[in-house]
Specification:
The complex is a heterodimer.
Chain A (H helix, E strand, L loop, with lengths): L3 E3 L5 E3 L4 E3 L6 H11 L30
Antiparallel strand pairs in A: 1-2, 2-3
Chain B lengths: L8 E4 L14 E4 L4 E5 L5 E3 L3 E3 L11 E4 L2 E5 L13 E5 L8 H8 L30 H16 L27 H17 L3 H8 L35 E5 L2 E8 L14 E6 L5 E8 L6 E3 L11 H9 L5 H8 L18 E2 L5 E2 L3 E4 L6 E8 L9 E9 L8 E9 H4 L12 E9 L3 E8 L5 E9 L6 E7 L13 E11 L4 E2 L5 E3 L4 E2 L12 E11 L6 H4 L6 H9 L2 E3 L5 E4 L4 E7 L8 E4 L4 E7 L3 E11 L5 E8 L9 E4 L1 H4 L2 E4 L3
Parallel strand pairs in B: 1-2, 5-6, 25-27
Antiparallel strand pairs in B: 2-3, 3-4, 6-7, 7-8, 9-10, 10-11, 11-12, 12-13, 14-17, 15-16, 16-19, 17-18, 18-28, 19-24, 20-23, 20-28, 21-22, 21-24, 22-26, 29-37, 30-31, 30-36, 31-35, 32-37, 33-34, 33-36, 34-35
The chains are: A alpha+beta, B alpha+beta.
């Protein structure tokens, strides 16, 4: 099992603690993930859940809504 | 046939009448001139006689020849009728001088000195004998001898314009007022004067009294000068462009100058002659002028802040500060660019001791860095127990196992500060402004330690030392750092500054440049000590403050300049927080629960973590009851909220129904947007 696993969107899950890390260049965990990738790390593939959600997230709902 | 000549004879008695035109070969006579003329073929009269007898009735042209008294002459000039004048003629032959012409005589004459007076072209030699008559000419040698005699005599006399005699001048007695006097005359007068002086014994009294007074030309007083009158005044009246001065000295060496009117030019409109107080070093050389007052504007300029004496009571200090600016403490507190500098907010670990390393933090955002193995270091947010300072909490780093300091080892606390909090400093531009770092520090080992500021790229740094003087005693430190006009300093939600408090540092990040900006990634000075040289050593930090500007609050005021917990908490939660208690959603499938979260803006999209997963029976779904949360498999959280998808236990009849997370679950969800 790799240190990270891909998710249904562009974030990743850190397998050590299950933290979900967003794709945000200013997120320190994402920056660490990028360093891990650059060092040759390969994340585990996305693992689809057994059930299917009736809620449609849609791409817009997972975008960053703004920065402060 | 040959024509016969026509002979005519014509005459005139007038010497001035010229011969007229004649008939060819006719003759005319001028009796007065004793001359004959013959007409030529054209009738032009031709004179026939080259030499004539001199006649008083004749006139003669230059070069005409005559015979007079048996002597042949030639006219030197045009001559009118009259008696014979020798000077008009050159004697040609037959004279008593044997034929010498007058021209010869005159030429010879010109070589001689005229009695009437003349100028000689060469020297006149005289007989080698002294003249005996007053009218005799004298030779140069005679005159030179006389001149030498006179000069010798003159040099032996006293010059009227002043001279030095080599012998004594003897004078007659009884001089008049304007006469030179004899020595015996002076001696007598001197004796009389001395007699008179001696007779006035009181002069010594005058002299002694005089010595008690201040001389107008300048003097040194040995007592105080007191001016006592209705309006006493000490007047320094300048007469040129030099400044007026009142000097304070010690042992004759300047210490202070009060200059009530400097020498700067008066250019009108009350400009110039400003006021100044200057200070001098031990050697009497001027250090600077701490106080200046502009005469024109009245502006007071000081080189240092005006501070109260330490002997003021708190009430006096309050009164003094209140007269300067109103309620400054809260203003400064909210201007503080540090986050959680008082270590009061500690959502994540509270006061739990943390091992350093792996980015472990205390007080949510303070990072402790320790040396690698075999170092063993811990950090903790701790209630203040060392000494007596008015703060509730502090940060402590302790050493369980010390080690030799390797090149890359550091023991430090550092705080990343967001660029948005520092944007006002305008660093990286020509408008860069200073900051002042104020903090309390403590260490078992007294010594020199460092504070460092770096940019996000860690290619610009400023290192400054601070000294811990006592062991395990809180000491207040302030450091003012000028703004960095170069380098790249983020002013957005990235890292604006790394602020490091260094207590151990290996050689790789040490620098000799202290108190100045430089390129590079240095965080400690070459002279910094090691606070963790022994097991059990610890250091503490309290009430860390980063203020814009160069003002450092005094120790007794700094305690007031920190934001209260209710203000600091949301500030910290911009970077790290528990998920708010408002998560609700619906069961999307048998294994998914989608929930919505909203919260105050965080620095960026947070990492969401479920602590201690799986969480049993922490999700309630209508119709499904309490379910387990097994983890988070998708996050759509932005800076102010979004959607989360949880893995759940089987929902059973709850699929499609709404539900909510219990407090027990939400207490386990953390949002991390730390720098």
């Amino acid at each position: 099992m790799a240190e990270y696993r891909l998710t249904a969107n562009d974030g990743v899950i850190r397998t050590s603690d299950g933290a979900v890390i967003p794709n945000d260049p200013n997120n320190a965990d994402w920056q660490e993930y990028q360093r891990w990738l650059a060092a040759g790390g390969v994340p585990d593939p996305y693992k689809a859940p057994i059930g299917t959600s009736q809620y449609d997230w849609g791409p817009k709902l997972v975008e960053v809504v703004g920065r402060y | 046939m040959v024509a016969l000549p026509i002979v005519q004879h014509r005459g005139t008695p007038n010497a001035a009448t010229a011969f007229p035109t004649l008939l060819e070969r006719s003759i005319a006579v001028n009796l007065a001139n004793r001359q004959l003329a013959l007409g030529d073929t054209n009738g032009t009269p031709l004179a026939l006689l080259a030499v004539r007898y001199f006649s008083t009735t004749s006139q003669y042209a230059v070069g005409d020849f005559v015979v007079q008294a048996g002597v042949l002459y030639r006219a030197r000039v045009a001559i009118s009728p009259g008696a014979f004048t020798g000077s008009q003629w050159d004697e040609i032959a037959g004279g008593p001088a044997g034929g010498v012409s007058q021209g010869y005589v005159d030429a010879q004459d010109a070589l001689r000195v005229a009695k009437a007076g003349d100028t000689m072209g060469g020297p006149l030699f005289l007989p080698n004998a002294d003249p005996t008559d007053v009218n005799h000419a004298t030779r140069k040698s005679y005159v030179d001898g006389q001149v030498s005699f006179v000069a010798t005599n003159a040099n032996n006399r006293v010059a009227k314009i002043g001279d030095t005699m080599t012998g004594h001048l003897t004078l007659p007695t009884g001089p008049a007022a304007a006469n030179a006097v004899r020595k015996d005359y002076v001696d007598a007068a001197d004796a009389t004067l001395q007699t008179n002086i001696n007779a006035k014994a009181a002069t010594t009294y005058v002299d002694s009294q005089d010595a008690l007074k201040v001389a107008k030309a300048g003097d040194t007083m040995t007592g105080e000068l007191v001016i006592q009158r209705v309006i006493p005044a000490l007047v320094l009246d300048r007469t040129d462009t030099q400044g007026a001065q009142i000097r304070g000295r010690r042992g004759g060496v300047d210490r202070w100058w009060i200059v009530p009117g400097m020498g700067n030019a008066e250019t009108g409109s009350n400009a110039g002659s400003d006021f100044q107080i200057a200070r001098y070093n031990d050697a009497g050389a001027q250090i600077d002028a701490p106080l200046n007052i502009n005469r024109s504007t009245g502006q007071i300029i000081t080189t240092q802040p005006i501070l109260p004496t330490t002997t003021w009571t708190v009430a006096q200090q309050d009164a003094a500060r209140a007269s300067i600016f109103a309620a400054p403490n809260d203003v400064m507190a909210y201007s503080g660019m540090q986050v959680n500098g008082s270590f009061e907010v500690a959502q994540e670990f509270g006061s739990t001791v943390q091992a350093v390393g792996g980015g472990n933090r205390i007080a949510d955002i303070w990072i402790g860095v320790g040396g690698g193995a075999p170092w063993s270091m811990t950090i903790e947010r701790k209630a203040v127990v060392f000494g007596d300072i008015p703060f509730k909490n502090c940060a402590v780093m302790s050493c369980t196992t010390t080690a030799a300091v390797a090149a890359n080892d550091t023991n430090q606390f550092y705080l990343p500060i967001e660029g948005n909090r520092l944007a006002r400093l305008m660093w990286g531009t020509t408008q860069a402004r200073p900051i002042t770092i104020a903090f309390w520090a403590l260490a078992i080992t007294p010594g020199t330690y460092s504070v460092a500021v770096r940019n996000s790229a860690t290619n610009r740094c400023y290192v400054q030392n601070f000294t811990i003087s006592g062991s395990s005693l809180w000491e207040y430190k302030t450091i003012t750092i000028p703004g960095d006009t170069t380098g790249t300093w983020l002013n957005d939600n990235g890292v604006g500054m790394y602020l490091s408090f260094m207590f151990t540092c290996g050689t790789n990040q040490r620098t000799a440049t202290v108190g100045a900006w430089q390129a590079g990634n240095f965080i400690a000075s070459n002279t910094m000590g090691n606070a963790f040289a022994a097991n059990g050593n610890y250091i503490g930090l309290a009430n860390v403050m980063v203020l814009p500007g160069s003002y450092a609050p005094p120790a007794d005021r700094q305690m007031y300049i920190s934001r209260p917990l209710d203000q600091e908490l949301p500030t910290v939660q911009r970077y790290w927080r528990y998920c708010p208690y408002n998560l609700s959603g619906f069961q999307g499938s048998s294994t998914n629960f989608d929930a919505q979260a909203y919260y105050p803006a965080m620095r960026g999209n947070p990492t969401v973590t479920m602590l201690g997963a799986p969480l049993a029976s922490t999700l309630y779904v209508q119709g499904g009851g309490y379910l387990n949360l097994n983890g988070i498999n998708l996050s759509g959280l932005g800076v102010t909220g979004g959607l989360l998808r949880f893995d759940t236990s089987a929902a059973g009849a709850g699929v499609g129904n709404v539900g909510f997370l219990t407090h027990g679950a939400q207490d386990k969800l953390t949002l991390n947007a730390r720098l």
